[in-house]
Write a structure and sequence with these properties.
123 residues; mainly beta; 4-stranded antiparallel β-sheet; 42% strand
Length: 123
């Protein structure tokens, strides 16, 4: 069953800034894209389950700070898989080794609802 959990005042989530919130024991990375769109993903890379909160957000693309995988922050879609290590780009053969045989996977996404000046995550 989906639960709607308050994560704070809408004003606490400025446009283009990532914020991590604890939603019933699950760490969720929340980003306000524009006035009408707020996106949320589990703060966990699908490659090695490491946190994404120190990643780089450019438009709607989040780059994992650990292995440079790229994801769409709103859809969770994997755009590029295991591109390097901590910012250093790697050649294809070593990317295959680092992926540890895993196929590209997307991120877990959550619905965010704004109501009466507050944001809620459905988890």
């Amino acid at each position: 069953m989906v639960k709607r959990v308050s994560i704070g005042q809408a004003s606490e989530f400025p446009k283009g800034k990532m914020k991590t919130v604890n939603v019933k024991g699950t760490f969720v990375l929340v980003v306000r894209m524009d006035d009408d769109t707020v996106c949320a993903v589990k703060n966990q890379c699908s490659h090695m389950s490491l946190p994404l909160s120190n990643g780089n957000l450019e438009d709607d693309t989040l780059t994992c700070p650990w292995h440079n995988s790229k994801f769409n922050i709103c859809t969770g879609e994997n755009i590029d898989w295991v591109r390097g290590v901590v910012g250093v780009k790697l050649p294809k053969w070593s990317r295959d080794i680092l992926s540890m045989g895993q196929q590209p996977k997307g991120l877990t996404t959550y619905t965010v609802v704004e109501q009466d000046g507050r944001l809620f995550v459905e988890i």
